[in-house]
Write a structure and sequence with these properties.
The structure is a single chain. By secondary structure, the protein is mostly helical. It has one domain. It is 87% helix and 0% strand. It has three helices and no strands.
């Protein structure tokens, strides 16, 4: 059981890392990209996905700045 807990802790730390916002944003962008590629015209997802990635990064900046401020 100890190995299973260590395995789960590794994957949580690997995926979430320092920012839960970036983890959720990354998964959201992947889902949005899949849905957009299936539903929309070909050119629209190419414009939508970079905007979604940029939005995720901008939203996560205040948390990263607070995290860097801790010593």
């Amino acid at each position: 059981m100890k190995y299973l807990a260590a395995f789960g802790a590794f994957w949580y730390d690997f995926i979430v890392g320092d920012s839960i916002v970036l983890a959720i944003g990354g998964v959201s962008v992947l889902v949005l990209g899949y849905v957009a590629s299936r539903v929309m015209a070909e050119a629209l997802p190419q414009l939508l996905l970079p905007a979604a990635v940029l939005t995720t990064l901008v939203v996560s900046l205040p948390g990263l700045i607070r995290w860097r401020g801790r010593s």
